[in-house]
Amino acid sequence: MTDTPRREGADHPSGFTHLDGSGAARMVDVSQKTVSARTATASGRVLLGPEAVAALRGGGVPKGDALAVARIAGIQAAKRTPDLVPLCHPIAVHGVDVDLTVVDAGVDIRATVRTADRTGVEMEALTCVMAAALGLVDMVKAIDPAAEVTGVRVEEKTGGRKGHWRRGD
């Protein structure tokens, strides 16, 4: 073990930044990176059968307001991402928006996470979508045990060294 801080670049011949010279996993040192405003938007869908969709649209979910529970689950998860993703940096999450839209096939989920920090919030946005999806599945599983989480992905990010990126650009 050394007291020398690691630089951002990889020491491993593969070039992977999360491996040290011996191939062991490590957290990348971002202390020298500049703080900047950063956002990430992720999306996903919970596929549901017609009965569950009707219950969501009509307020008939036996456990209560499934969409509200899913929204809160997503927000909580965004704030706790480093507890769930081993090499994810703990950062200040400054804002989280979670939109849930009931569609004929289920529920579309879109989450945007914002920070001003040294590293991005893509993992927080993805974790937010996954937790919102799981919260929703938990709320409707008695109606639709075949509920399926699908299509979780980053849609857009801003800030940092690479700047703006949008899926499809």
From TrEMBL:
Keyword set includes Iron: no
Entry keyword set: Lyase, Molybdenum cofactor biosynthesis
Example of a GO MF term: cyclic pyranopterin monophosphate synthase activity
Start-end of Basic and acidic residues biased regions: 1-11
BP term (GO), one: Mo-molybdopterin cofactor biosynthetic process
InterPro entries: MoaC, MoaC_bact/euk, MoaC_sf, MoCo_biosynth_MoaA/MoaC, Mopterin_CF_biosynth-C_dom
Record field: transmembrane: none
Protein origin, superkingdom: Bacteria
Active site: D138
Pfam families attached to this UniProt entry: MoaC (PF01967)
Region (Disordered): 1-23
EC top class, as a word: lyase
Binding site for substrate: L87, C88, H89, M123, E124
Ranges of residues in domain Molybdopterin cofactor biosynthesis C (MoaC): 27-160
Catalytic activity: (8S)-3',8-cyclo-7,8-dihydroguanosine 5'-triphosphate = cyclic pyranopterin phosphate + diphosphate
Pathway as given in its UniProt record: Cofactor biosynthesis; molybdopterin biosynthesis
Record-listed E.C. numbers: 4.6.1.17
Task performed by this protein: Catalyzes the conversion of (8S)-3',8-cyclo-7,8-dihydroguanosine 5'-triphosphate to cyclic pyranopterin monophosphate (cPMP).
Family under the similarity heading: Belongs to the MoaC family.
Subunit structure comment from the entry: Homohexamer; trimer of dimers.
Name of the protein in question: Cyclic pyranopterin monophosphate synthase
Lineage: Bacteria, Bacillati, Actinomycetota, Actinomycetes, Streptosporangiales
Gene encoding the protein: moaC
